[in-house]
């Protein structure tokens, strides 16, 4: 009965997510003049788009380097394995939405024979770094943001934008402070949580405690000067590349955005990408990115055209690289689904990794 209830709840959640994504996509599609959008897409310059795609692919390599730093307190891993896992993981986002990110740590566990709970914990740390970086850049940009003359937004709204920047800056500082505090008290937190979760089934309780424990160990990057600086350096390179790629995509449509306006649009798009719909937040990402451009005074159909290409390059480029490794390693869609389901049902144990390895023998030997 309990399993049936969980299954129904999972299916309802999936249907709800698909419905949200579908409604957003429908709203986005219905709001555009597709004859004009087709004309805009056909007239776009190709070379800036190719460079933008190359920069997005470069971020996969930079993320792989940073992931090694996050994993350093827990295990030594090879760059080639982190790059393959990162490529497949971000490719999975294009198919499954944000839920596809769970593929990445599991693929790495197959290759390195390390506990999935270790790699999953580092993914959480990575999200902390990325969200902190984006929130900081977006917040600081909002503090000094000036609307272009073409914008129809009034000064009262601009004051709200600046206030949002102040609140975001305070929130980021508070969040980082809490993480540092958690790192300092990690042992006590795990001990207290173990007592608090005593009513849970043993397998689920061990999985949660293992994840929290590894998260505390991985957060050593916040207290190690070398690891913190190296992680921050890679994070800066990643988001610099993404920012330049965003500017190039707009430039391909003969729109010369300032650095501040580029960051403004990037922030809108990233908010949309948080909606966990399949296709790399399809619908939500398009609507949010287009909204950011419209605020800047960009014509609606042009904004829609740019958001379509921005989405395709941001999520499609990693998908093509990930698809190459999926085909090379014989890890089909069914294999990806098995990896995802294993994360939800296992006791993050080596036995489950061994089972998956037998299903993908040649994958583990690469």
What does this structure look like?
By secondary structure, the protein is an all-alpha fold. It has one domain (2-364). It has helices at residues 2-30, 34-42, 47-71, 79-96, 103-112, 116-143, 155-184, 186-196, 202-218, 225-252, 259-273, 278-281, 284-295, 300-329, 333-345, 350-359, 361-364. Helix 2 (34-42) packs across helix 14 (300-329), helix 6 crosses helix 11 and helix 10 (225-252) crosses helix 14 (300-329). Mean pLDDT is 75; it is low at 343-366.
Walk me through the topology.
Blueprint: H1 2-30, H2 34-42, H3 47-71, H4 79-96, H5 103-112, H6 116-143, H7 155-184, H8 186-196, H9 202-218, H10 225-252, H11 259-273, H12 278-281, H13 284-295, H14 300-329, H15 333-345, H16 350-359, H17 361-364
Helix pairs in contact: 2-14, 3-4, 3-6, 3-10, 3-14, 4-5, 4-14, 5-6, 5-16, 6-7, 6-9, 6-10, 6-11, 8-9, 10-11, 10-14, 11-13, 13-14
What's the SSE pattern? HHHHHHHHHHHHHHHHH
Radius of gyration: 21 Å
- Could you say which structural class the secondary elements and strand pairing correspond to? mainly alpha
Question: What is the residue-mean pLDDT, rounded to a whole number?
Answer: 75
Number of strands: 0
Low-confidence stretches: 343-366
- Overall tally of domains: 1
- What would you call the quaternary organization? single chain
Please state the overall shape, judged from the principal axes of the Cα atoms. Answer: globular
Sheet with most strands: none
Bin the strand percentage. Answer: under 5%
Number of helices: 17
In percent, how helical is the residue content? over 70%
N-to-C terminal Cα separation, in Å? 42 Å
């Amino acid at each position: 009965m309990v399993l049936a209830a969980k299954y129904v709840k999972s299916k309802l959640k999936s249907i709800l997510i698909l419905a949200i994504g579908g409604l957003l996509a429908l709203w986005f599609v219905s709001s555009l003049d597709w004859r004009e959008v087709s004309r805009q897409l056909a007239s776009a310059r190709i070379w800036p788009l190719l460079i933008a795609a190359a920069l997005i692919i470069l971020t996969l390599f930079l993320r792989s380097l940073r992931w090694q730093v996050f994993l350093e307190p827990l295990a030594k891993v090879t760059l080639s394995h982190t790059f393959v896992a990162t490529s497949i993981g971000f490719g999975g986002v294009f198919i499954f939405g944000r839920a596809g990110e769970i593929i990445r740590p599991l693929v790495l566990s197959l290759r390195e024979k390390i506990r999935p709970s270790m790699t999953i914990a580092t993914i959480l740390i990575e999200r902390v770094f990325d969200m902190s970086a984006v929130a900081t850049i977006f917040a600081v940009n909002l503090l000094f943001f000036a609307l272009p003359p073409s914008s129809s937004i009034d000064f009262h709204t601009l004051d709200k934008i600046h206030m949002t920047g102040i609140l975001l800056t305070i929130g980021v500082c508070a969040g980082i402070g809490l993480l540092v505090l958690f790192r300092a008290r990690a042992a006590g937190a795990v001990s207290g949580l173990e007592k608090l979760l005593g009513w849970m089934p043993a397998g689920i309780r061990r999985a949660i405690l293992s994840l929290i424990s590894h998260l505390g160990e991985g957060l050593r990057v916040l207290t190690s000067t070398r690891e913190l600086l190296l992680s921050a350096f890679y994070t800066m390179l990643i988001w610099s590349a993404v920012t330049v790629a965003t500017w190039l995509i707009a430039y391909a449509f003969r729109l010369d955005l300032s650095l501040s306006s580029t960051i403004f649009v990037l922030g809108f798009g990233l908010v949309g990408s948080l909606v966990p719909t399949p296709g790399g937040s399809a619908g939500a990402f398009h609507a949010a990115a287009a909204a950011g451009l419209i605020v800047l005074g960009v014509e609606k159909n042009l904004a829609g055209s740019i958001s379509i290409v921005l989405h395709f390059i941001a999520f499609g480029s990693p998908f093509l690289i990930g698809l190459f490794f999926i085909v090379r390693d014989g890890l089909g869609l069914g294999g990806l689904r098995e990896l995802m389901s294993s994360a939800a049902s296992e006791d993050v144990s080596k036995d489950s990794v061994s089972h998956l390895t037998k299903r993908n023998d040649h994958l583990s030997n690469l």
